[in-house]
Amino acid sequence: MGLLDPFYGAYERQLARSLDRTAMPRHVGVMLDGNRRWARENGFDTASGHQAGADKIKDLLAWCEEMGVEVVTLWLLSTDNLRRDTSELDALLTIIENAVAELAQAKRWRLRPVGALELLPEHTAVSLRESAQATAEVTGMTVNVGVPYGGRREIADAVRAMLLEGAAAGRTVEQIADAVTAEGIAAHLYTKGQPDPDLVIRTSGEQRLGGFLLWQSAQAELYFCEAYWPDFRKVDFLRALRSYTTRERRFGT
C-alpha cells in the first residue's frame, strides 16, 4: 500500500458524498489515451501498456454504474490507429477482443460495437459481434465499444446510409437531398437511439477531441485529465463528475 493510499481513500469518499446524484451525466464518453506513453515511462513494452489499459476498463464501468450513468462510450481504437505497425496492431486487436469478450462474460453491461467493423480483420469483427449478441438481453448500462472509430467516418457512413436508403425507396435526387437534415443524420449514426454524451473525458493530458463523437459531442462538457489511462483512478473520475456538475450548461443559449 502506498503512503498516500489512506489519504486518497478518504478524499475519494468525501468527493463521492459531495456530488449531486441528481445531476449526473446520462452518457459519458471516454478517450482511453496514454497506454503507450505509460508503458514507455514505466519500462514496459507497448503491448503491456495496452493490456494495462484494458485491465482498467472494468473499474471505469463499475464507477459509472455506481454513479447512475446510463451509457458509456469507450474509444479503444481509432480508424487512424489501423495504420500502426502490423505487430503492434495485431497485439492490440487481440487484447481488445479478449477485453470485450471478458466484459460480455460478466453479463453485467449491454455491449454495442460502434465503428467501421468492415475495416477490421474478420475474426476481430466476428468476436466483437458475438460479444454484443451475448449481451443483447442484458438490461444494465449500455457500453459502446469504439473499434475502429473515427468521427468523420461515422458522419460519412450516416450520410451514405441515408442516400442508399433513399435510392432503394425510389426517391428522386431532390427528395433525397431534402431528407439530409440534422435529425436525419443523427438517426443514422452508430449511436442512433441513444442520448448524446453529456461528458467526454480524455486522459493523458491531450486537450482535443481528435475525432471522437464529433457530431454527438456538440453540447458535451469536456474534461481533460493528466493521468495516463492505466493510472486513471476513481478519484480522477469523481473529479471529472464534480467538474461536470458545477458547470452551467447553456446548450447554445
Give the helices and strands, then pairings.
Blueprint: H1 5-18, E1 27-31, H2 35-41, H3 46-66, E2 71-75, H4 86-105, E3 110-114, H5 122-134, E4 142-146, H6 151-168, H7 173-179, H8 182-186, E5 199-202, E6 221-224, H9 234-245
Helix pairs in contact: 1-9, 2-3, 3-4, 4-5, 6-7
Please trace the helix and strand order, writing H or E for each element. HEHHEHEHEHHHEEH
Note the beta-strand portion: 5-15%
Taking the alpha carbons of the first and last residues, their distance comes to 48 Å
Number of domains: 2
Approximate shape:
globular
Report what the structure shows.
With 253 residues, this protein is an alpha/beta fold. It has 2 domains: 171 residues, Decaprenyl diphosphate synthase-like (Undecaprenyl pyrophosphate synthetase, 3-Layer(aba) Sandwich); 39 residues. It is built from 9 helices and 6 strands, in the order H-E-H-H-E-H-E-H-E-H-H-H-E-E-H. A 6-stranded parallel beta sheet has the order 3-4-2-1-5-6. Helix 5 links the parallel strand 3 and strand 4. The longest helix is centred in the N-terminal third of the chain and has 21 residues. The chain is globular. The relative contact order is 0.18.
Distinctive features:
253 residues; alpha/beta; Undecaprenyl pyrophosphate synthetase; 6-stranded parallel β-sheet; 9 helices; 11% strand; globular
